[in-house]
Design a protein that fits this description.
Length: about 160
């Protein structure tokens, strides 16, 4: 496993110090770390454990219980494909399959080159635009097939390369 860089470790220690004397500090710390780093590294769970006295196993339990936390680093670009009913009946599963093939990222994980993460999501509340895909927070509605997104995805890939 790759070691965390000094900047990320400093950030984790700042967050831990900022929240350690508050009520319910574990979730506050996890939220800030997830927001900044995009995931919860093991080092963060250790630092939280040291500061709060909670066992690492208990903190890991919190991380895995709540879907907003993940222990897997996200790719540089995050693609969400809605698999809610309205999107599904309009072909979002085929779009998802096409994006998996295009990016090399499996569903709910990150491509080996670290460029893309693909998440299958539930209804995102934009059913009128079904099927809906979001790429780095930009929503694409009425996506007819993965072909509509190829140019965007390839340009992101080229940007990073
Ligand atoms: S089902 Fe996809 S936005 Fe509602």
């Amino acid at each position: 496993m790759e070691k965390l860089n000094a900047k990320s470790l400093d950030f984790i220690h700042d967050v831990v110090n900022r929240h350690k004397d508050k009520m319910g500090p574990v979730k506050l710390m996890l939220h800030d770390i997830q927001d900044e780093l995009g995931y919860i590294p093991f080092e963060a769970m250790e630092a939280i454990s040291d500061a709060t006295g909670e066992p690492v196993a208990k903190i890991y339990g919190v991380v895995t219980f709540y879907t907003q936390f993940t222990t897997m680093p996200k790719g540089q670009h995050v693609i969400n494909v809605c698999l809610g009913t309205a999107c599904y009946v309009k072909g979002s599963q085929q779009i998802l399959d096409g994006l998996v093939e295009l990016t090399g990222a499996k569903v709910n994980s990150t491509s080996a080159d670290g460029i893309f993460s693909i998440d299958a999501t539930r209804c995102v509340g934009a059913c009128g635009l079904a099927p809906v895909v979001s790429i780095d927070g930009t929503v694409y509605g009425n996506v007819k097939s993965v072909d509509d997104l190829i140019e965007t995805v390839l340009s992101l890939k080229k940007e990073v390369a």
